[in-house]
Amino acid sequence: MFDTQTYVARRNALREKVQHGLVVLPGNNESPMNYAANGYRFRQDSNFRYFFGIDRAGFVGVMDVEEGTDCLYADNCDMDDIIWMGPQPTVQQLGEQVGVRRTFALSELQKTIQRAIRYGRKIHFLPPYREENRQMLSNLIGIKSGSLVNYVSELLIRSVVALREIKSAAEIDEIDKACDIGYLMHTEAMRLCRPGIYEREVAGAIEGVATIYGNGVSFPSIVSQNGETLHNHYHGNKLAAGRLLLIDAGVESATGYSSDFTRTIPVDGRFTSGQKAVYELVLEVNNRSTAMIKKGVTYRSVHLASAKILAAGLKELGLMKGEVDDIVANGAQALFMPHGLGHQMGLDVHDMEDLGERFVGYDQEVERSTQFGLGSLRMGRKLCAGHVLTVEPGVYFIPELIAKWKREKINDSFINYPAVEKYIGFGGIRIEDDVVVTADGCRRLGKQRVPVTVAEVEAAMGK
Ligand code: GLY
Ligand code: MN
Ligand code: MN
Question: How far is CA 379 from the centre of its chain?
Fold first, then answer.
């Protein structure tokens, strides 16, 4: 938790933007795995945590904008809870830590909301993504849960995004810490990886690092020899010499901030010349894209410039043909990289994705494309100092996609299919780093970059 004043200042800044009505920010509840008392690791809602700081289940924060008051609604633990969970701070004590003096039992919330509705006041809420919060808002406000989406406050969404997307120095410190743990996770994977062990042994070890040094993983780890499947969560394969292992994994710091790194490593510790050629192209795209990041440019323009570097490299490898500008205008390189260059990162690994990428990654100036590949870019807007982003180019050989494009003659004139088909079984390569946009460029987060050149990776793997 940050100091009390941080949360007071954040709520005051939000109040200034919203200007009228009641802001209702529900925290998350425990989420049962198979029965009520056997829960998944508790994960607080990031918006609640940003404005109210408390990392516990069962809280609702309410801000009365005109009155200038903030309230917390939650129930104190009873003796039963204390017997099973140990002594707990009271709601009032927790409120004091974040500058909230007015605390009430959860049962009081309905009256507060109903009174506001009677007086015709606006109730601002964000799009709920958990069913129990959807249900609670539906009951509180008296709107069918299926219709809630029509009453979400766009003003509140835009206000929250404007505040959360610019990270303070204290937040950057936290993300740096998460990235330092991310470094340990990925170098542990490099040390462990060898033929004959299973993907899950690597996954388990790096998730252990995330638990030892941080608050667990920031998203389900991707540790896969089949790296051509972008979000492959299966960990059951035995590692085989000659294959690549793609590891996309991150951690949450104690205060809830994320890291998100990807490295792709040769299972036996040495890249083959064919793997090295593709790897060095992806690394070149990563490095040159990072060098383009600065405030005032749009991330869409960086994505498109990186697509040209990729296309030029794929031509050199004999996989593509035609003019680079034409390739990218037609989105033909997306056969090899069907995702965007990166996304914002903060309290969420895809920061604020619950609020809608339309508001987080796009604005009136930059609209989301519908083109295959470019349409998957989560962050297209103009960059500002304090934005935290991932840079994550990749090259993948997805057999089903290659077959479909060939069959349907999609971008036929740009793809050298006989050459591409020789790569079926190659897998995929992604190299992902995290950066903060600064006054004059950007800085990679974490004290040290995770080993990334061919020589660094091979050295980290003991070769
Ligand atoms: N870790 C998922 C992603 O890189 O977006
Ligand atoms: Mn990632
Ligand atoms: Mn990412």
Answer: 11
**E-only strand ranges, 267-398:** 388-391, 394-396
- Sequence-ordered list of residues with C-beta below 8 angstroms from that of 402, at least 6 positions apart, any chain: 335, 417, 420, 421, 424
Pocket of ligand 1 (CB under 6 A): 219, 248, 260, 343, 349, 392, 432
The fourth-level CATH superfamily of domain 169-460 is: Creatinase/methionine aminopeptidase superfamily (3.90.230.10)
What's the pTM? Answer: 0.97
- Contact between residue 294 and residue 441 where contact means Cβ atoms under 8 Å apart: yes
pLDDT in tens, 263-313: 999 999 999 999 999 999 999 999 999 999 999 999 999 999 999 999 999
Q: Do residues 331 and 374 make contact, with C-beta atoms less than 8 angstroms apart?
A: yes
> For residues 11 and 102, is the Cβ–Cβ distance under 8 A?
no
The residue whose CA is least distant from atom 3 of ligand 1 is 260
User: Measured from the CA of 249, which atom of ligand 1 is nearest?
Assistant: 1
For a mutational test of ligand 1's pocket, the pick from 260, 282, 339, i.e. the residue with the most ligand atoms closer than 8 A to its C-beta, is 260
Q: What is the CATH number of domain 4-164?
A: 3.40.350.10
pLDDT in tens, 412-455: 999 999 999 999 999 999 999 999 999 999 999 999 999 999 99
Beta partners for 428? 396
Q: Which ligand 1 atom minimizes the distance to the CA of 248? A: 1
Whole-number Å distance, alpha carbon 282 to ligand 2 midpoint, is 15
Any idea where the domains of the chain sit in the sequence? 4-164, 169-460
Q: Of 283, 251, 250, nearest to 264 (Cα)?
A: 283
Q: Which atom of ligand 1 is nearest to the CA of 219?
A: 1
Query: Tokens in use for 245?
Result: 């292992």
How far is residue 36's CA from residue 45's CA, in Å, rounded to a whole number? 19
Question: Token pair 């950066």 is at which residue?
Answer: 435
- Name, in order, each residue with C-beta under 8 angstroms of 92's C-beta and a sequence gap of 6 or more: 103
Specify whether the CB–CB gap between 335 and 416 falls below 8 A.
no
- Residue 196 tokens read as 């004959």
